[in-house]
TrEMBL record:
<comment type="function">
    <text>Assembles around the rod to form the L-ring and probably protects the motor/basal body from shearing forces during rotation.</text>
</comment>
<keyword id="KW-0975">Bacterial flagellum</keyword>
<keyword id="KW-0969">Cilium</keyword>
<keyword id="KW-0282">Flagellum</keyword>
<dbReference type="GO" id="GO:0071973">
    <property type="term" value="P:bacterial-type flagellum-dependent cell motility"/>
</dbReference>
<dbReference type="GO" id="GO:0009428">
    <property type="term" value="C:bacterial-type flagellum basal body, distal rod, P ring"/>
</dbReference>
<keyword id="KW-0966">Cell projection</keyword>
<dbReference type="GO" id="GO:0030288">
    <property type="term" value="C:outer membrane-bounded periplasmic space"/>
</dbReference>
<dbReference type="Pfam" id="PF02119">
    <property type="entry name" value="FlgI"/>
</dbReference>
<comment type="similarity">
    <text>Belongs to the FlgI family.</text>
</comment>
<comment type="subunit">
    <text>The basal body constitutes a major portion of the flagellar organelle and consists of four rings (L,P,S, and M) mounted on a central rod.</text>
</comment>
<feature type="signal peptide">
    <location>
        <begin position="1"/>
        <end position="19"/>
    </location>
</feature>
<keyword id="KW-0732">Signal</keyword>
<protein>
    <recommendedName>
        <fullName>Flagellar P-ring protein</fullName>
    </recommendedName>
</protein>
<keyword id="KW-0574">Periplasm</keyword>
<dbReference type="InterPro" id="IPR001782">
    <property type="entry name" value="Flag_FlgI"/>
</dbReference>
<dbReference type="GO" id="GO:0005198">
    <property type="term" value="F:structural molecule activity"/>
</dbReference>
């Protein structure tokens, strides 16, 4: 049946053998044009009794006392009891080429046992980079998407009320020292490394400029060199070539997520000649206990006798031959027509791969 279905699918139009066209700017990252991750630790105040419990969150208590001391309030030895303060982690991505004085968004996430950050205000929080330097200062009112409503006998929670965002909540204080326009050479990093795609990018750039400007160094890197006599700097060169269309290529790969049963196949997946047989085994167990009453005047006891119904249904298919060089379109159409579940399809693909008949890489998530 598998062979008949797959052979019937031969009449269908197969997937196009052409690669997907894309602009260079959509498939590469440019050296130096990148974001930088920042992180900071701070306090959110003004919560309506939904903050950290200071007994369970000692870091919140210590941070609160340290902040008050810096403001001239001495609380050492005092029993501070408040539920309107929460310790939070503040994260942000510093945009490329951000200038001093510009703003960016930040994300605020509760660190202790706070129930909600709704209505809170983040106090001045330094945001540090991987080098330990402060690059921005965050402060402002926290906006959340979720909420929590609680009564004596019921609680309703929508979304995640312990995570919020401050739009334009950070002021950039330090710039990343990188001058793109002064570079004479630059690398383009492919987001999906591939030898063929890297070479096609280099050929497209060189044909457009009319000089040997781009050189593919490896599957993930194409190096650009500013050509002699070019009227402009490296920024002008990048602007000229980023709109060029390139036919991208990709390796034959099958991605499998066994937990969810999701299967994703690339268009170049091929199957050599192989024989396949599938067997489905279904076992049904039903319990119907019977109550047995004692005879009159026998002084017996009521008993329950077990009654189990066991059915075994096994469906076998004969060993079928899958034709050689079956395309992805034909393979998917044939297996779908058989009604094979994703779990069975995962097992079949892995078994075909073991035989060496599947001309593709299988990646299991």
């Amino acid at each position: 049946m598998i062979a008949a279905t797959l052979c019937a699918a031969l009449a269908l139009q197969p997937l196009s053998a052409q690669a997907a066209p894309a602009r260079i700017k959509d498939i590469v990252d440019m050296e130096g044009v990148r974001e930088n991750q920042l992180v900071g630790y701070g306090l959110v105040v003004g919560l309506n009794g939904t903050g950290d419990s200071l007994n369970n969150s000692p870091f919140t208590k210590q941070s609160l006392q340290s902040m008050l001391e810096r403001l001239g309030v001495n609380t050492q030895g005092e029993n501070v009891r408040t539920a309107n303060v929460a310790a939070v982690m503040v994260t942000a991505n510093l945009p490329a080429f951000s200038t001093q004085g510009s703003r960016m968004d930040v994300t605020v996430s509760a660190l202790g046992d706070s129930d909600s950050l709704q209505g809170g205000t983040l106090l001045v929080t330094p945001l540090l980079g991987a080098d330990g330097e402060v690059y921005a200062i965050a402060q402002g009112s926290v906006s959340i998407n979720g909420f929590k409503a609680q009564g004596d006998a019921a609680t309703v929670v929508s979304g995640v009320p312990t995570t919020g965002r401050i739009s334009s909540g950070a002021l950039i204080e330090r710039e990343i020292d990188f001058h793109l326009g002064s570079q004479n050479s630059l690398r383009l990093a492919l987001r999906n490394p591939d030898l063929t795609t890297a070479r096609r990018i280099a050929l497209a750039v060189n044909d457009f400029i009319g000089a040997p400007t781009a050189v593919p160094e490896d599957p993930a890197t194409v190096r650009l060199t500013l050509p002699r006599g070019f009227n402009g700097n490296i920024v002008d060169l990048l602007t000229d070539i980023e709109q060029l269309i390139v036919q991208t290529d990709q390796p034959a790969k099958i991605v499998i997520d066994e937990n969810s049963g999701i299967i994703v196949m690339g268009k170049d997946v091929r199957v050599s000649a192989v024989a396949v047989a599938q067997s489905n085994l279904t076992v049904t167990i039903a319990e119907n206990p019977q109550t047995v009453q004692p005879n009159p005047l026998s002084q017996g006891q009521t008993n329950v006798d077990p009654n189990t119904t066991l059915n075994v249904n096994q469906t076998d298919s004969a060993l079928q031959v899958v034709p050689e060089s079956v395309t992805l379109q034909e393979l998917v159409d044939g297996l779908n027509a058989l009604g094979i579940s994703p779990r069975d399809l995962i097992a079949i693909l892995q078994a075909i791969k073991v035989t060496g008949a599947l001309q593709a890489e299988i990646e299991v998530l």
